[in-house]
Amino acid sequence: MENQENNTTKRDWKFIIGMTVMILALAAMGGAFWKTVAKQAELVKEEEAREEENAIQAIYVECGEYLKRGYFVDMKEKTIFTADIPKEGIYNRKGTLIQGDVLENGDTVKIYGDGIMTRSLPAQYPGVTKMKRLDRASLETTQTYIDLVDSALRS
Q: Do residues 73 and 79 touch, judged by C-beta distance below 8 A?
């Protein structure tokens, strides 16, 4: 009887130790998982910050004597360029995709992409990945940029 109790006690201790080891192993795996998730979230944040830093704030203007064509002007550098609107569309300032939207004269936008432009006049920005409408410029500001593009294209 004593031998049977001793075996049962040994089995109980083995079970308790086994369960403890298993719980510790699961806790370690869970901790490693959450550490990986946190690291990935940090990388995503850094990438978004880089994209935001490299984004171009531009105004959209339509110019041309006979046939109006859309141009963008970098509001900081005053660089004139063309770019296609991404296939997915344009986002509003809150980050919501605007369905079936087009740009209008004077729209200010933030353009995200690889930053590589062609060396032509006007420059072309083929690497646009995302476009976000921020606001609409006043008529006076829009006219200033239209005049800038017209004079650059004539020379």
A: yes
The DSSP bridge partners found for residue 70 are: 62
Structure tokens given for 100: 């079936």
CA distance 155 to 153: 6
Among the listed residues 111, 125, 119, 7, the one whose alpha carbon sits nearest the alpha carbon of residue 59: 111
Token pair 């001793």 in the structure block, residue:
6
3-state secondary structure (DSSP) of residue 132: strand
Distance, CA of 144 to CA of 30 (rounded, Å): 59
- The secondary element (H helix, E strand) that includes residue 136 is strand 128-136
Give the pair of three-digit tokens for residue 128. 């646009």
pTM of this structure: 0.69
- Compute the distance between CA of residue 143 and CA of residue 139 in angstroms, rounded to an integer: 6
Rounded CA gap, 25 and 28, in Å?
5
Query: Averaged in consecutive runs of 10 residues, what is the pLDDT profile of the chain (155 residues)?
Result: 66 84 87 86 82 87 85 92 90 81 89 88 89 92 92 82
CA–CA gap between residue 153 and residue 66 (Å, rounded):
13
